[in-house]
Amino acid sequence: MRLVVHKYGGTSVGSIERIKAVAERVRHARALGDQLVVVVSAMAGETNRLFALAEQLSDVPHPRETDVLVATGEQVSAALLAIRLQALGMPTVSFLAHQLKIVTDSRHGGARIRSIDCSRLRSALDEGNIAVVAGYQGVDPEGDITTLGRGASDLTAVAVAAALKADACEIYTDVDGVYTADPNICPEARRLERISYDEMLEMAGLGAKVLQLRSVELARRFNVPLLVRSSFTNGEGGTWVGQEEKAMEDVLVSGVTLDQNQSKITLTGVADRAGLAARIFGPIADAGIVVDMIIQNASADGRTDLTFTAARGDLRRALELVRIVAAEIGAAGVRHEEQVAKVSIVGVGMRTHAGVAAKMFAVLAAEGINIEMIATSEIKVSVVVNSKYGELAMRALHDAFLGREAGAAKPDA
Ligand code: ADP
Ligand code: ASP
Ligand code: MG
Asked: What is the mean pLDDT of the chain?
């Protein structure tokens, strides 16, 4: 008998009708004889609604209480799905994180899973039940409720699949797989049959929210193959996320991503001396703010400009810290842009092909889009551009690297 983990996202359980449809799908899968664990997200919009309630009561709601609040979204959908499955005559038990001992550290809002005790889950399955598990939540060693970060019901699903050594982990969502670009922004995007963990990691980290970043990391570490498919259609479809295969290198670029959630901060007139970068970025790191790209201009008359990007949600705190340091080190000023776009191309084929970045820059130049920052890794090139050109840049790059005509234009293939 196979053991399969299904995960249904917010839109997939977004209404009573949708929950009924998910229950039908689960019944179907169970009829094939598989043991089933079903991880659910909160109903669409619910987590945002809960965060907004807290913000109406306090400018800085305490993270511990925020987690008590926002974890309820998943409790509701887990109970509703279990109730529906039972109504269809399927023995079902729902579980919250504390009942499965999904133990995390105490970083409220972004907790990391330390361990899962599968014994209760196993006995429920062995007794012939379907197990429905609330995603997104954990419990810390003191017994306090934690949450694992936005979009992290994917992570719950992969963690449970890894802990149970499940045969498959199927992520059901509102698109029928991983596309070459977000199909809601780029109508030309195509579904990928398969994609490597490394490429999916880059894409998730660069703004393709179809899979949460840490869920992909965990899937790679424990070698859990993921199948991303639609909960809205019955077609085969889907995308496999798994180990890299030789043939994958033949494809130059697998995907294009857009992240509109970035901000840019510039310190101007910084003295070009040893130790200043550490002075600037030390306090930012201590505050837990992740800095993404950094550029420092060549120095003119002993002074230079230093620009970096960070997530938009961290902008306010980053600015406060940078303004303090800027005054201390005698920088000329601090400027910021609240929203910039990061557009990236990703593909393992880049390791073995030259000229990819050059072609990317030429495509953007042809559209008249100015590149403000550049970062590269072995399998990706990212650029920061003015946020109003983000979608245009994405579509132009998709056209050039992945459009119908793209094959002919491969550099150095
Ligand atoms: P869920 O609520 O099921 O977790 P998400 O909204 O988190 O769903 O993720 C699905 C969404 O991810 C899609 O609706 C799509 O807009 C977006 N997305 C971004 N990039 C991609 C991509 N490359 N392929 C598929 N979907 C993508
Ligand atoms: N409900 C949570 C969120 O909206 C987790 C998830 O949907 O995966 O972020
Ligand atoms: Mg999601």
From this structure: 94
Q: What pTM does this model have?
A: 0.92
| Mutation to probe ligand 1, out of 171, 209, 232 (largest number of atoms < 8 A from CB) | 209
Query: What is the 172 CA–ligand 2 centroid distance (Å)?
Result: 13
Strand locations in 28-86, DSSP E? 35-40
pLDDT of residue 407: 56
Look up residue 9 and give its DSSP letter: -
**Which one, of 395, 293, 406, 409, lies nearest residue 355 by Cα?**
409
**Distance separating alpha carbons of residues 121 and 35, to the nearest angstrom:** 11
243: phi then psi, degrees, rounded to nearest 5: -60, 150
Whose CA is closest to atom 1 on ligand 1? Answer: 9
Q: Is 107 exposed, middle or buried (0-12, 13-18, 19+ CB in 10 A)?
A: middle
Distance CA 408, CA 401 (A): 10
For the CA atoms of 151, 152, 155, 157, the dihedral, rounded to the nearest 10 degrees, stands at -80
> Taking CB atoms and a 6 Å cutoff, what residues make up the pocket around ligand 1?
9-12, 41, 151, 173-175, 178-179, 181-184, 208-210, 255
The ligand whose atoms approach the alpha carbon of 258 most closely is: 1
